[in-house]
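To: structure subgroup
Subject: Chain for Friday's discussion

All,

I'm putting the inputs and outputs inline so they're searchable in the archive.
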Amino acid sequence: MCCGQKRSAMKANGVPGSKAVKLLYQGRQPISVRGSVTGQVYQFAARYSAQWVDPLDATAMTQMRLFKQIPWR
């Protein structure tokens, strides 16, 4: 398996990329948000309130009061 295939497998398993940002959704209703830069659709709900987001999309999403960046370890 080459490097590109390993990266794809990691992303499919929910493992963040080296620059991914973890956002916490603070709303109550399920929501789908399309990233303003990448166009990727992120789905948030009470059960999946924290998710990894591309840093290009995270900038615009954190400007909404529904999301805040959280540190990851």
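Points worth raising on Friday:
Residues 3-12 form the longest helix (10 residues).
Confidence is low (pLDDT under 50) at residues 5-13.

D.
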